[in-house]
Specification:
The chain is of the alpha+beta class. It folds into two domains: 37 residues; 121 residues, Nucleoside Triphosphate Pyrophosphohydrolase. The chain is built from two helices and ten strands; from the N terminus they run E-E-E-E-E-E-H-E-E-E-E-H. Strands 4, 5, 6, 7, 8, 9 and 10 form a seven-stranded mixed β-sheet that branches. It has a three-stranded antiparallel β-sheet with strand order 1-2-3, with no helix packed on it. The protein is elongated.
Length: 165
C-alpha cells in the first residue's frame, strides 16, 4: 500500500517526525494524528481436501506461483471465522473447525499472517480473485521460502511427526 501523504483526520500534509524514538509520519497541522503503519492482519488456510492440499494462484501472480488461500481479517471478525469465510469465497468449499498453526511476520507486505489448517469438503469453484488451483498430495507438499511457506513447514512437521494437525 502506498504511504500516506495527508492526514486522514484534517487533510494536512504529513511530515516526518520521531515519536517514542521511532520514525513516524505525523500531521503537519498538529491535529495529533500519528501514522504508526502497523502490520495488517491476514489469515491463511492450509486447505486439506482428501489426502491433498489445495494451493491457489492469484490473478495478480506469475503463472508458476501457487500458495495458500489468504485474505484480510475484517473488522469484528475472529481469525478462525475469517479463514472459513475466505475458503468459502475463494474455493467454494465448506470446512471443519480451523486448527491453529501459528502466526508469521511477512515484512515485505507489512503483514502478520495468522495460519490455520482446515479439512474441506465439496467441489472447488474458484472465486473472482483466483486464476487457478492445484491439488498437491500431502506427501509431496514442500514449503516455500516466502510468506506462508513457514506455516506449511510447521504444519508438515506436525503431520509428519505424528501429531494430529
Amino acid at each position: 500500500m502506498p504511504a500516506f501523504q495527508f492526514c486522514p483526520w484534517c487533510a494536512a500534509p504529513l511530515v516526518a517526525s520521531t515519536v517514542d524514538g521511532e520514525a513516524r509520519q505525523v500531521c503537519g497541522a498538529s491535529c495529533g494524528f500519528v501514522h504508526y503503519d502497523n502490520p495488517t492482519p491476514v489469515v491463511a488456510a492450509i486447505v486439506q481436501l482428501d489426502d491433498d492440499v489445495v494451493l491457489v494462484r492469484s490473478r495478480a501472480w506469475e503463472a508458476a506461483w501457487f500458495g495458500l488461500v489468504t485474505g484480510f481479517l475484517e473488522r469484528d471478525e475472529a481469525p478462525d471465522e475469517a479463514v472459513v469465510r475466505e475458503v468459502r469465497e475463494e474455493l467454494g468449499l465448506e470446512v471443519t473447525a480451523p486448527v491453529w498453526i501459528g502466526n508469521y511476520a511477512f515484512a515485505p507486505m507489512n503483514q502478520v499472517i495468522l495460519a490455520y489448517h482446515v479439512v474441506a469438503r465439496g467441489e472447488v469453484v474458484l472465486g473472482d480473485e483466483l486464476a487457478a488451483f492445484k491439488r498437491v498430495p500431502i506427501a509431496r507438499l514442500r514449503p516455500w521460502a516466502m510468506g506462508t511457506g513457514q506455516a506449511v513447514a510447521d504444519w508438515l512437521a506436525r503431520v509428519r511427526g505424528g501429531v494430529v494437525a
